[in-house]
Amino acid sequence: MKFSIKKEIILNQLLHVSKALSNKNFIPILAGIKFELIESGLLLTGSDNEITIQAFIDSEKFNIIKLGSIVIPGKYIVEIIKKLPDEIINIEIVDGLKLLVSTQRTEFNLNGISAMEYPKINIEKNKKPIIISKNIFKNIINQTSFAFSLQETRPVLTGINFKLNKNTMECTATDSYRLAKKIISIENNDELFDIVIPGKNLIDLNKIIDDNDEKLEIHIFNNKIIFIFENITFQSKLINGSYPDTTKFIENINILKVYTNTLEFYDVIDRASLLTNDKEKNIVNLEIKDNILILTSNSPEIGKVEERMEIEKNNKVDLKISFSAKYMMEAIKAFESEKIEIIFNEETKPIILKNPYSDDLMQLVLPIRTY
Amino acid sequence: MKFSIKKEIILNQLLHVSKALSNKNFIPILAGIKFELIESGLLLTGSDNEITIQAFIDSEKFNIIKLGSIVIPGKYIVEIIKKLPDEIINIEIVDGLKLLVSTQRTEFNLNGISAMEYPKINIEKNKKPIIISKNIFKNIINQTSFAFSLQETRPVLTGINFKLNKNTMECTATDSYRLAKKIISIENNDELFDIVIPGKNLIDLNKIIDDNDEKLEIHIFNNKIIFIFENITFQSKLINGSYPDTTKFIENINILKVYTNTLEFYDVIDRASLLTNDKEKNIVNLEIKDNILILTSNSPEIGKVEERMEIEKNNKVDLKISFSAKYMMEAIKAFESEKIEIIFNEETKPIILKNPYSDDLMQLVLPIRTY
What we know:
DNA Polymerase III, Chain A, domain 2; 371 residues
C-alpha cells in the first residue's frame, strides 16, 4: 500500500471512523483502524463490535501508488495526522507490517497488524432503503436521546424505539420516569418495522452527521441497522426484545392546559432547582393559582426559593404538583417553539409538554409524590 | 443589612472573591462569603486561610438602605446571582440570620451565619509598596508558574521566589528538573527582599487580574504578602525557608548555541513526543548535525518518529542529548519572541532557552541520561 493525500482529506475521515473505537475493547485489533487501498479508493474501517464506521475516499481525491491493506492503532494515527503540518502526507507500508507516514521533514514508523486478522464485517444494503433528510434525523436524536435509560436492568429501555407504519415513523425513548416521542412522516413508504436501536450508538452517529438537508439512507435487517450518507457507512446492532407499549402512558384525561413562554419556563425551573441536589432528584414544587405559576423548593440546610411567572390556561382549575427539575428541563430544551403547552393530568399521570401548534413532538414527565 | 444593586456589579465581585473559597476546607464558615455593608460601600471577603480575597463596591455604585453584615454560603450565592435575569437585585437580612435575595418575580431565602463568627483577617498596608503594571506581573506568573514543584517534599519549591535588589526583581520557579527565571526592573526602589510565594496562590491571583497596564501594589510583610489593584485586595501567606541558590545551576560553559524559529521548534518536539508516554517522562532525543536538528523518539511497541528542522549555530560542534518533551515544550511556550536561542552546555548541565535579543527571560531544562 502506498499513496499520498492532503492532510485535511484523510484527517476528516479518520476522525469519523475513530468514533467507533472504544478504549474498553478487549480485542486488541479493534483498537486499530483498517486501511484498505483498492483501485476505486481508500476504505477506512473502525469498529468496536457494537458499531462499525466506514469512510471511503474516492481515488479521484488523492494519488494512489500501490494497493494494499493494514491495521494501525487508531489513537496514534489520528494524533499524528492531526499534528502534521498542513500539506501532502505520504503513507506507505514498509517492512511488511510497518506504516511509514511521512512529509518532507517528518517520518513516523508505526507498527501495524495484518488486515487479514481484522474481523470480517458484512455491510449489506436493502434494495429499497428508508430515506430521510439528515437534519430531520438529527432532530429525532436531539429531541429524544436524553430520555433513554442508562440502566442495563431493562435493556430495551437503553435504546430508542423506531416504529414505522406506512408514512408515519414514531421514535420513542423512555427510562420509565419520563418519555420523549417524536413523530415524522416518511414519503412513499410501504414498509413496516418496530425496532430498538442502542441509544448511545445513535448519539455517536449523530456526532458525525452534518446538520443539512442532504439524504440519509436507512437499511434495516433482522439484527442490525445501517445508515449511509455521503461517503460514510455506519452500522449498529439492534437491541433484542419488544419495546413496551407506551400509548397507555400517553393517553390522558387532562384537567388543565397551561400555555407559557418556553425559555422563561426553563429559566424559572433552573433557578428553583438551584438549592436542590441530585440525590433528591432535584425535586421542585409547582403550583398553579389563577394566572400565576409558582415554583418553589426548600432545602432545610441551605434555604428556600420561590419563583413566579404569568401563564395562560384553558380553564379555572388550580393545582399543586412536584417533579424532577432535571427531567423537566431536559424535556423543555427539546422544543424549538417560542411557546409551550403544559398538559396536567390526574395526580399520578405524567405531565405532558408539547408545541401548542404541532403534534410532532411530545415530552412526558412523571410527577413525584412529596407527601 | 439591606441594599439593591445591579446584577453585573455584584456578580463580578462575587466571582473574584469566590476564587478564595476551597471545597476542601474543614472550617465550615470559610465556605461562605462575608458581606459587610458599611457607609462607604459593600465589602465582600472570601478566604481559605491560605489566601484571602476582598472586593469593595463603592456606595456610589448601588443603593444602600440599611447597614449590617452576614456570611452566606459562597457556592449558592454565586450560582443564584449568576442565574437571575439581568436586573436590579434586592439583598436584605431577614429573621436575624437569613438572606433574602429577590427580584420582581424571584425570592431566595438563604441560611446565613453571623459575621461575628468569621475569622478576623488583618489586612495591613505598607507606606511604600512596590508598584508594577498588571500586565508585567501577569507575564511573570505566566512565564514561570509551570515550573514550580507540585511535590510537598521540599515546600519552598512549591513557591515562586521573588528577589528584589534595588531596581531589579528576579522571579524564579524550579522543581529541580527545570527552572524558569524572569527578570524585571522596578523603578525608584530602595527595598531589598527575598521571599517565596505559594505558586498555586499566584495562579489564583493571576486569574482575577485583567491584562492591562494599570498599576498593582505589592505590600510585603514578614509572613504574608498583599496585592492591591482596583477594588481588590488579595492576601497570601508566604512560604518559610530560604530558596535554594540557583545561580550555580545557571552558570554555564556553553559548547554550542543554536538559533531557530520558536513555534517550529515547539511543533517538532510536540510531534516527536506523540509516541512517548507520561510514564517515560516523554523522553525525546535531539541530535545536532551540521545545520540540521534531528528529533527522534522510539517506543518499541508503537513505533518510532524522526523530525528534522534547519537551524543556525554559533560554531561547528555537533551533539546528541535527550530531555523531557513536556518540560521543553512548557519552557518554549513561555517565549513570545519569533526566534529562540538554545544554549547547550556540558552533558549533565541544563539546556538553556532564551530570547536571542533579550535577557529578561531564561528557561532551563535538565537533560536526561538515556544510556
